Amino acid sequence: MKDIENIINQAILNEVEGAQFYRMAASQNANPEAIEALNKLAEEEVAHIEYLRQFSKEVAGGKITVDGALSANVPSPEIYSWGKMDKQNLNLALSVFSVGMQMERDSIAFYEDAKKQVDDPQAKKVFDELIKWEKVHLDQFAAQYEIYKQEWWADQGFSPC
């Protein structure tokens, strides 16, 4: 169980870093829709932390359950849409979404690796839940990033070949 505890501790740290990143990005933004969305993303990372803390208690107690809590609370795609951006905020949005996509990819890889390190089938199911959640985030980030990338290209006066 020590391996699972170490994985959970690292996962919690990863989620704390994500929440802090979104809060920092919100503090740097002037767009009210973006600020609200970034704060909601930070709250989602906090929800991950709480889920992981509960998982940690279950591991310590020797009984792991999978309650589907993460699957039941998939974020609304609207939080990823920040409306029309001015040039400065568009640059920030592209950077935030780019970093966010990489954080989600890293989280997916982390949980996939964690699944390989544990033998407990219930622990594997918990990691599957976390992977699903992170994939939803990644897909939604990628879709919005593509929209903002097209806007950025248009603002620059060119489009890809």
TrEMBL record:
SUPFAM superfamilies: Ferritin-like (SSF47240). It holds the Pfam family Rubrerythrin. GO terms for molecular function: metal ion binding; oxidoreductase activity. Gene3D superfamilies: 1.20.1260.10. InterPro entries: Ferritin-like, Ferritin-like_SF, Rr_diiron-bd_dom. It comes from the Bacteria. Residues 6-143 form the Rubrerythrin diiron-binding domain. This is Rubrerythrin. It comes from Peptococcus niger.
